[in-house]
Write a structure and sequence with these properties.
mainly beta, Tachylectin-2, Chain A, Jelly Rolls, 2 domains, 8-stranded antiparallel β-sheet, 7-stranded antiparallel β-sheet, 40 strands, globular
Length: about 550
């Protein structure tokens, strides 16, 4: 069976994969979005079903106050002797000199939970990965952050043993990788034919991203990096990557790296890795961050590649290049009854669909209810869109460049500090918000609020709308062009506002965060503190090839 990359489309970075019998599971990063760590299940490595989130207890995970693209980084999912292990980082300070990167481990006997209390690990850096050796011992490898100026080494990786009985790190911490020029992160350990392999991401997280492989006869090293014979290097700061698109800027899948490996029941090897699909839009040549870089509003996605072992026991891409395959054959794959994804949510369930996430905190009864008015999602207005504490907002990932999102709501605000509507956002500083609100002179009205790196504008001002009527809102995105619509019935749309440049909802265009992706959702604010509510009848997300 053939599969087309990416397999997890839209904001699904840093994939970690395991196989348990004939079931495959992938964990990906969620950053400031709640719940923490996205899990997918598959039987064929082609179709993937979203599963319950493992980090969903607010008593065990507090993301309040974390900045854009902070929060949950690079989960590592493993399984040993029937126990699932999930290691992850909670980043609470990143855009500064000294990073705060606390690493934790949770376990479960069932992938669907319940998951254990988090066990604190060492905090030398992010990207913790747990390795289960065949002698029963367990080790954690991670990268090391260095706040000194200048750094003593370009890149470092450390290894320490983990004691599963005492549930704590044990013994000496040793550096197993030091480099003056080549930076490695996202490390995973693998043992094969008597070799320990260090499988690590290299050369940053942008278009220079790649994947390297090193090996040693001892888990403690020293590790030798494989010099791929068909790789390219322009400078000593580049790794000898076995996977990268950095020398092929026109290739459709960019930013390739941060891999993890899985062996099928048939003995075939595959790697999952992050990648990105670029628009033609670029930052200005004099932009403060990433000048001239292309924009990736879909964020970093997850792809899959066939791997093979060389005669001298190195692991490389099966296509004999370092470029990923856009499409490949999954050998031995058997089709299964894959559940279709959510398109139109009528809000008939008493709980939110797993597709939605919120910002930093769960949507408890002080934020939303699906039972107060059956068939509707009632959203109680909370804090503003810049809040990093208690917003009432749910959203889902943009997975393609051509999409349509729409909703219908009933909302009767009585003050200008009350708002509800349809939002497209990257983070709390970058969004497009079509909403219903109130004006002292106009009464109930509709408006658009845009934010581009804290530059706030109301491009259409405030337009009156009728009271006690259902309002329909819609957004169409075609590549980089966004057009809003509204009406009093679903087949009576009127365009509102100009065509916006939606490419600003991109890793490269934002001043603070740059690790997530564009989201579409609905939200409600009441800055008076009285929690005025809005009732949403439905929310729809459609992929449109003919826009």
């Amino acid at each position: 069976m053939k599969v087309k990359n990416p397999i997890l489309r839209g904001f699904h970075p840093d994939p970690s994969i395991i196989r348990v019998n004939d079931d495959y599971y992938i964990a990906t990063s969620t950053f400031e979005w709640w719940p923490g760590v996205r899990l997918h299940h598959s039987k064929d490595l082609i179709h993937w079903e979203l599963m319950p989130y493992p980090l969903s207890d607010p008593d065990r995970l507090d993301l309040r106050g974390v900045g854009p693209s902070q929060g949950i980084w690079a989960p590592c999912l493993t399984c040993d002797k029937g126990i699932f292990y999930l290691a992850y980082t909670v980043v609470t300070a990143f855009y500064c000199n000294m990073y705060d990167t606390a690493n934790f481990l949770v376990t479960a006997q069932d992938i669907c939970g319940p998951w254990s209390e988090p066990v604190p690990l060492n905090n030398f850096g992010f990207d913790p990965s747990l390795f289960h050796d065949d002698d029963g011992r367990k080790y954690m490898v991670s990268m090391v952050t260095d706040h000194r100026i200048p750094k003593k080494y370009k890149g470092r990786l450390v290894l320490q043993e983990y004691d599963p009985i005492k549930k704590k790190m044990s013994g000496e911490v040793r550096e197993i990788y030091q480099a003056e020029t080549i930076f490695l992160e996202g490390p995973h350990l693998l043992k094969h034919n008597g070799w320990y392999y260090l499988f690590s991401a290299d050369t940053g997280t942008g278009e220079g991203h790649g994947q390297s492989i090193l090996r040693s006869r001892s888990v403690w090293g020293p590790y030798e990096m494989y010099h791929c014979p068909y790789g390219e290097r322009d400078s000593d700061t580049e790794a000898y990557s076995i996977l990268s698109a950095r020398h092929n800027p026109d290739f459709p899948l960019q930013k390739c790296g941060h891999c993890d490996l899985v062996e099928t029941e048939q003995g075939d090897w595959y790697a999952v890795h992050l990648c990105g699909r670029a628009l033609k839009n670029r930052n200005a040549p004099d932009a403060l961050r990433f000048p001239g870089d292309r924009r990736y509003p879909l964020g970093r996605e997850t792809a899959i590649q066939k791997m093979e072992w060389t005669k001298d026991d190195w692991l490389v891409l099966a296509n004999k290049t370092i470029l990923p395959d856009e499409e490949l054959e999954i050998e031995g794959a058997v089709s299964w009854n894959y559940p279709e994804g959510l398109v139109r949510d009528e809000f008939n369930s008493p709980v939110l669909d797993l597709e939605y996430q919120s910002l930093r905190v769960p949507m408890d009864e002080t934020h939303i209810t699906l039972t107060e008015r059956p068939g509707f999602l009632r959203m109680y207005g909370r804090e503003g869109l810049a809040s990093r504490y208690h917003q009432t907002l749910i959203a889902r990932r943009l997975t393609e460049f051509d999409i349509e999102v729409s909703t219908a709501l009933e909302f009767e605000p009585d003050g200008f500090k009350q708002m509800a509507g349809l939002i497209l956002l990257y983070d709390d500083q970058n969004y497009f918000y079509l909403h219903i609100t109130f004006d002292e002179d106009l009464g109930k009205c509709i408006s658009i609020l845009t934010a581009e790196n804290k530059d706030y504008r109301y491009p259409v001002g405030f337009l009156p709308v009728e009271k006690n009527k259902v309002i329909y809102l819609k957004a169409e995105i075609h590549k980089d062009r966004l057009q809003f619509y509204w009406g009093y019935k679903e087949d009576g749309w009127s365009a509102i506002g100009p065509v916006f440049d939606s490419s600003i909802l991109s890793d490269e265009a934002c001043m603070e965060g740059w690790f997530t992706g564009a989201m579409a959702g609905i939200c409600c604010q009441d800055l008076t503190g009285f929690r005025k509510y809005a009732d949403f009848d439905w929310f729809e997300y459609k992929i449109c090839k003919d826009l």
